[in-house]
Amino acid sequence: MTLEHVEMHLKFLFDLDNLLEDMEAPEYQDIGFTIEKEEHLSLTRARNELLRKLPPEVADMYERLKKRYQRAIAPVDNGFCFGCFQKLPTELISRQKEFLTCPNCGRILYWRKKP
Asked: Is the pLDDT of residue 33 over 70?
């Protein structure tokens, strides 16, 4: 699996996790937002399928980070990790084609594509 595919799967997984979390939030249920049990199960199955498509070491790392932080992945913009807002070492910035984690917070890093 290429780095681009891993990043894409991680972003989809992150979005699904956020969606599932939002669906269970009490503030949404208080305003009448409900989800059918089947829809929730379908999204959970999609999440588990995405997790299985990742290399095992990446999936394990993502799950560990998800327990520690709300956001397990963080974009890099202008040389800063947007998870902890710390400036990354120059050496890491030049290694954008590799799978990297932030040396400060440990989140999985991805570089935003410039338009």
From this structure: no
Residue 104, φ and ψ in degrees, nearest 5: -90, -55
- Burial code (b: 16+ CB inside 10 Å, e: under 16) for 24-47 equals eeeeeeeeeeebeeeeeeebeeeb
* pTM tops 0.85: no
Q: Can you give the chain as a three-state secondary structure string?
A: CCHHHHHHHHHHHHHHHHHHHHHHCHHHHHCCCCCCHHHHHHHHHHHHHHHHHCCHHHHHHHHHHHHHCCCCEEEEECCEECCCCCECCHHHHCCCCCCCECCCCCCEEEECCCC
Question: What would the pLDDT profile of 54-104 be if each residue is shown by its tens digit?
Answer: 999 999 999 999 999 889 999 999 999 999 999 999 998 888 888 999 999
Alpha-carbon gap, residue 66 to 83, rounded angstroms: 12
